[in-house]
Design a protein that fits this description.
The chain has two domains: 3-145; 215-419, 3-Layer(aba) Sandwich (Rossmann fold). Helix content is 63%, strand content 12%. It is built from 15 helices and seven strands. The protein is elongated, with a radius of gyration of 41 Å. Residues 175-183 and 185-199 have low confidence and may be disordered.
């Protein structure tokens, strides 16, 4: 285990301990309030009532009982008799009475102190819950920061890998002569080679892809919509394989493998190809036309490309459609997914987050190009409307409906064409 892995494990363990401790000492506010209310009700209804009764009993032998209900003569006689008895018993009851009242006062003060303590305890726990919530927010912020730090580390690793490859190429036999004899011609050729290497931005593209494309799980869930289409077309067998052009990180190839479908991916990005091979996916590092030339006529069941065709020049796209029609068997199909410029936010902004994009392609244009090159039953599927900004309410206003459609409607579309 290297240092970075040890640091990640240490941070993960520390975060887990903090979360467990926060969970252990966390107190539910509603429970606190119910306990406090219950305690207060018990004091008001039970304890203080019992104390009042106890004080009355403690004063027996000091206060005369009520004689209002008796006749006047009896009241006078009973009054003198009671006074006489009280004076006789006072010697005995005075100390007991004082003792009883002292005990009751101690109980009352103790109950009041416990109530004040319970209030302070509830207040302290409320403050503790507030601090715990603040710490949870900080932990979440740390999670986000660690996520982006990991992305940057991956980018640096990929850049280092590319740098090593470039150093190996520069130190190869074809450049040793330039080092020994640095003439003008050799320096010119070396400058050309260096320019070629500088244009090879595989690691930068992987970094952009990881931050803008979405997680592997999210992309796999999005791509599941195409599985029933392939199943209906009965493709993916050994005699009717699938080719994925620009396979990228391999999410689509993973889905096809999970369905036991025979598929191959091609890509020119060395880092992405390595990622796919690490996942034991069938991937070839090859340029599209170079690979298609090796495929026999009418031998492929399906060709797919997700967020691919928007990278190509128009002439390149035309030649690609011709080649795909050649390699597909009758009944085979092509599936392309691309950003939808009908969505104004996509066509004017998010499309250009990828600097390798060429031009947005309206769905009607791609449909007509496929039909012009022999594909039939071409259909368009609008995908991925903006769920956060989309207006859910219905409206009778045509202007509002069109506004919502063009600003918050499908951000991508898929186009599917079949070879008869």
């Amino acid at each position: 285990m290297d240092n970075s892995e040890q640091e990640e494990k240490y941070i993960k363990d520390l975060k887990d301990k903090v979360k467990e401790e926060a969970k252990r000492i966390s107190v539910d506010k509603s429970v606190d309030k119910n306990m406090l209310d219950s305690f207060q009700d018990m004091q008001n209804k039970n304890i203080y009532y019992l104390l009042s009764r106890a004080e009355q009993n403690a004063n027996i032998g000091v206060k005369s009982p009520s004689l209002v209900k008796l006749f006047f003569l009896k009241r006078v006689i009973y009054k003198w008799i009671i006074r006489f008895i009280f004076k006789v018993l006072r010697v005995i009851t005075v100390n007991q009475n004082q003792y009883n009242l002292s005990i009751l006062e101690i109980l009352r003060r103790n109950i009041d102190a416990n109530y004040d303590l319970a209030l302070r305890f509830a207040n302290d726990k409320t403050q503790l819950n507030t601090r715990i919530t603040e710490n949870e927010v900080r932990l979440k912020s740390m999670d986000n920061e660690m996520y982006y730090l990991k992305k940057n580390i991956d980018y640096l690793k990929n850049s280092l890998l590319q740098l090593n490859q470039r150093v190996d190429d520069i130190c190869g036999d074809n450049l040793k002569g330039y080092v020994r004899k640095p003439g003008r011609k050799e320096f010119k050729e070396l400058k050309s080679i260096t320019k070629k290497f500088n244009s090879d931005l595989d690691s930068l593209y992987v970094f952009l892809e990881d931050n803008l494309r979405g997680s592997r799980t999210e992309i796999k869930n999005r791509l599941k919509v195409y599985l029933p289409i392939l199943e209906k077309a009965n493709v993916g067998s050994k005699d009717c394989p699938i080719l994925d052009i620009g396979c990228g990180r391999g999410e689509w190839l993973e889905l096809l493998r999970e369905k036991n479908l025979n598929a191959t991916g091609i890509d020119v990005n060395k880092i992405m190809v390595k990622t796919c091979k690490d996942l034991r996916l069938n991937v070839v590092e090859e340029e599209v036309f170079s690979y298609l030339k090796t495929i026999k006529d009418c031998s492929m069941g399906a060709v797919t490309g997700f967020h691919l065709i928007e990278h190509y020049e128009f002439d390149f796209l035309i030649e690609l459609f011709k080649e795909l029609h050649r390699v597909l068997r009758p009944g085979g199909l092509v599936i392309f997914e691309t950003p939808n410029p009908d969505n104004i936010l996509v066509g004017s902004c998010t499309f250009y987050l990828d600097p390798t994009h060429n031009k947005p392609l309206p769905s009607l244009l791609v449909k007509l190009l496929l039909e012009a090159h022999g594909f039939s039953n071409v259909c368009i599927i609008n995908l991925h409307p903006n769920k956060i900004l989309s207006k859910k309410e219905e409206s009778d206003s045509e202007n509002l409906r069109m506004f919502n459609e063009h600003f918050f409607g499908p951000q991508d579309y898929a186009i599917i064409g079949y070879k008869e």
